[in-house]
Amino acid sequence: VEPIQGEAGVIIPPPGYLKAVRAICTAHNVVLILDEIQTGLGRTGRLLAEEHEGIESDITLVGKALSGGFYPVSAVLSTSEVLGVLRPGEHGSTFGGNPLACAVARTALRVLVEEGMIENSEKMGEFFLAGLRSIRSPLIKEVRGRGLMIGLELHPEAGGARRFCEALMARGLLCKDTHEDTIRFSPPLVIQRPDIEWALERIHPVFAAAGP
To answer: Phi-psi category of 147—alpha, beta or left, where left has phi over 0 and alpha has psi -120 to 50?
Structure first.
């Protein structure tokens, strides 16, 4: 389960959803696996997105940001109770435990925590969301997000998100069309208010030029 669906258009489940999933899995002795490859490591303003609901999965998958973009590395996080079902020698990996990958991951995690990037993601995400919600355009259906994982969904009559992403790229701002009608913004966790203000100065006129 993704705590927030990324490729589906930054879909945030209603409050209590993940808690209910956790309760059902516990009641029926089902292993709860959370895919935090996109949502984890500060992206939503928490180290892991599951923290927003105060739950703990049995297995959590992380990657991408785990190395800060420097080296390919991913990880499976769990307890000895769960992973203990695998006896030594039962499961192997050609590249598992790569020393450079592990060193990079440890450093990236230390930077995330010690340099306040998780807290910055929460604060800058709130500022960015407020700025996007201030855009008055009949083409915008909804702006949603947590931390710096943000989606701006368009009405069907907008003609899809791609043309807006291309217009923003021409102005120097990179974003991604997701699920046809959603513009996804995932800026780096080091972003600051002046950077977001710069971005908003380019987003506003793109919607103004698109018209009703």
So the answer is: left
Q: Note the pLDDT tens digit of each residue in 124-170.
A: 999 999 999 999 999 999 999 999 999 999 999 999 999 999 999 99
Helical H segments across the chain, by residue range: 17-27, 80-83, 99-114, 117-133, 162-170, 193-210
Q: Give the dihedral of Cα atoms 64, 66, 69, 71; nearest 10 deg.
A: -100
Cα–Cα distance, 149 to 25 (Å, whole number): 27
Distance CA 171, CA 141 (A): 23
How many CB atoms are closer than 10 A to CB 47? 17
CATH code, domain carrying 88: 3.40.640.10
Tokens representing residue 90 in the block: 């039962």
Torsion angle of alpha carbons 103, 106, 112, 113, nearest 10°? -140
Task: Convert the pLDDT of each residue in 156-212 to its tens digit.
Answer: 999 999 999 999 999 999 999 999 999 999 999 999 999 999 999 999 999 998 876
Q: Are residues 67 and 126 in the same domain?
A: no
Number of domains in the chain: 2
Q: How far apart are CA 197 and CA 37, in angstroms?
A: 28
Token representation of residue 146? 């947590």
